[in-house]
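Most newcomers find our protein records easier to grasp once they have seen one. The structure tokens are whole numbers drawn from a learned vocabulary of backbone shapes. The record below serves as our worked example for the rest of this section.
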Amino acid sequence: MPDSKPQTIRELFLRSQRDLLTFLTRRVGRDDAPDLLQETFARYINRDAAAEIADPPAYLRRTAGNLVKDFARHRQVERKYFTDDGEAADAPSQMASAESLVDDARRALLLAQAVATLPPRCREIFELRVTHNLSQREIAERLGISRKTVEQHFHLAMERCRAALQQ
């Protein structure tokens, strides 16, 4: 039954906001529902004959439903034409910045210098572990030494590499 007394927009908003937001949230999600709620009321306010609407809450509900349909169509078009391939003209570059490339090169040089200063057996164990991805057991078997010795040499190598990077 339509309400016969005129309502202010504020009263209408306060009465309808919660129901409309719940309706919109179920259909488009929490992130987009508030925007569609705002657009629903903006369309009501901007309507030339808003005062002549017999049942404003029903009008708002219908407007919200139409906005949901428009929203779904818009998302469908976005999915069709705008793929997330990371190659959009205004998308951030996936390449590292010149600053980070210089920093990476400096760190690589410091690591190479630290590895070069390791004792020969320690450097060999470090390279087998890091470069060839061998386990401590595999290195111990290959070199004919105990796993504990491999562990100690690798630990020393890692300490020196960390120290070199902190310079």
